[in-house]
Amino acid sequence: MATKVTVPKPTLSTIDAIALIVGMVVGVGIFKTPALVAANVQSGGIALLAWLLGGGMSLVGALCYAELTTAYPDAGGTYHYLMRAFGRSPAFLFAWARMTVIQTGSIALPAFVFGDYASELLPLGEYSSAIYAIGVVICLTSLNIVGVQQGKWTQNWLTAAKVLGLVLIIIVSIFFAPQVPPNTSTTATQNAAFGQAMIFVLLTYGGWNEAAYISAEVRDGKRNMVRVLLGSIAIITVIFVLINLAFIYGLGLAGLASSSAPIADLMRGAVGENGARFVSFLIAVSALGAINATIFTGARTNYALGRDFRNFSFLGRWQESTGTPKNALLVQGAISLALIVLGALTRKGFETMVDYTAPVFWLFFLLSGVALLVLRSREPNVPRPFRVPLYPWTPLLFCAICAYLLYSSLTYAGIGGITGVIILLTGIPLLLLNRQRTTSKNL
């Protein structure tokens, strides 16, 4: 008697999916990177232009992903596209990198931010931040194992609280903060500084592509995935531009560039210390939303890896009763905890995780753009409910953006980036071992 195979079911509404994406992208980056962007531009207008341009670049990528997700809905997301375009080997290396570098590093990164702010309220000793980070990863992983409904409703509430909090900050800043005359320039150099600013902008926008991993779980996905991607980018761009407008209005460009905690400084100037405390709470909520969304989507690639590769078959089991890939979530959680320990030992958790994930992330993001070009040529008869406009120029532009960010991340990444690349390369022996075992089984 054949074994019944349980697969993902379309249980997510368009609102659920948008909440996941917005919750992931509007994470902790927006509280850290605006000061770095301001330090690399010549005026407030150029700073706002950089954030608008970041939204436009993300829109280019979203249009490419809209075609891929509607033509090839699958829980594996980018893994599935790489499998169809390039075969098993590149797809395996992507899934390995996502499990050990990209997604798990992206879970550890906001977990450290949550730990930093929780430690301000109740310190737990020398490794307080890491202790809180470990605790929150365990709690949210467990919540997502319990069931898909619990995971998605938690995300909806966290995203709603985060967006409302940011809207409140924008309103309070505009109406109550003393206006600072906008500086016409900062200490940024006249040459190439804008390119550096865009690296930080696009880092902050990163994460919208996670929509690919829930494409098989969105109701009427062939029609609604376009709405999810474009709607998410629109909401995120509006939030980012408005919050930076509030920064420039309340702090001035030079004040923003020199601030280590711009939102806290902004609210302190508007309503005093209570405003700064509110910001600490908001950042903690934002970190929780980013962690939960990343846990939710990340395990889907691990599930696809186990579904397609014999050596990892234990990951490819979908729990019908809960609607979740339990084993994939457990493995993802364990690796994330190991990275938190690594970050705690280096004493630079956030910076280490950024360097660790960036080069590998942009490498495979570039390959996903190439995959669209390959699949459009190789599989012209596959139904495509949405076709990327201005083909092939739009995907070519997306590939160029990814190539630039890959070069930049390799140029600026330190030991963390090198470690991430080495971990990616360790997947090659595992790939060869899986191929050898598969060949032996077929003899």
Describe the structure.
This protein has one domain: Amino acid/polyamine transporter I (Up-down Bundle). It is built from 16 helices and no strands. Helix 3 packs across helix 8, helix 5 packs antiparallel against helix 13 and helix 10 runs antiparallel to helix 11. The relative contact order is 0.20. The N terminus is likely disordered.
Question: Nutshell version of this structure?
Answer:
With 443 residues, this protein is mostly helical.
Q: What's the CATH architecture?
A: Up-down Bundle
Q: Biggest β-sheet: count, sense, barrel?
A: none
Overall geometric form: globular
Helix segment count?
A: 16
Order of helices and strands: HHHHHHHHHHHHHHHH
Subcellular location: Membrane
GO cellular component, one term: membrane
GO molecular function: L-amino acid transmembrane transporter activity
Keywords: Membrane, Transmembrane, Transmembrane helix
Secondary-structure map:
Layout: H1 14-25, H2 33-38, H3 44-71, H4 78-86, H5 88-121, H6 128-146, H7 148-176, H8 193-205, H9 221-258, H10 262-271, H11 273-308, H12 326-346, H13 349-378, H14 393-412, H15 415-425, H16 427-442
Features:
mainly alpha; Amino acid/polyamine transporter I
